[in-house]
# Entry
Amino acid sequence: MRNKDQILLENLYDSISNDKFSYPLIVFHGTDFNSAKDIKQNGLDLSKCDRGYFGKAFYVTTDEQLATSNYADFSGEEEGGIVLKFEMNPINRILDLRNSDDWDFYTNLKYKGRDLRAFMGFDEFPSIINSFGIDALYDRSNDAFAVYNLNILKIKNI
# Structure
């Protein structure tokens, strides 16, 4: 017999389909030169990511100019940083926080009896949110995706 959490996850999988975005979805990540070089040589690594608004994640945006002005230009390098281009795999599970159903689902998720968002400051947050089948969160207020499953991204340039 399925428990309440299993039923919620099944409903989530039905609701967070990839049809909310147009694919192929091109996204951008602004960073410094050394980080870009590391990504090229070693691939993406969540352990090297900082915590942002939605916890420890790899943050990307659909707006190349935003990736430049808000991230690459603040790289601390005299000539500015680098904007990397990625393609997002259409086989993914993204909670679109613009969507009231996704927002309600997200704000009602519980982990160890507590609100999931209470764990955003933890290094384990990506694996916790992945355990709910969520690959990324999208928030239009900053036109950004917080990506927790890096397998949904494929680098297009460096």
The first strand starts at residue 25 and ends at 31. The chain has five helices and eleven strands.
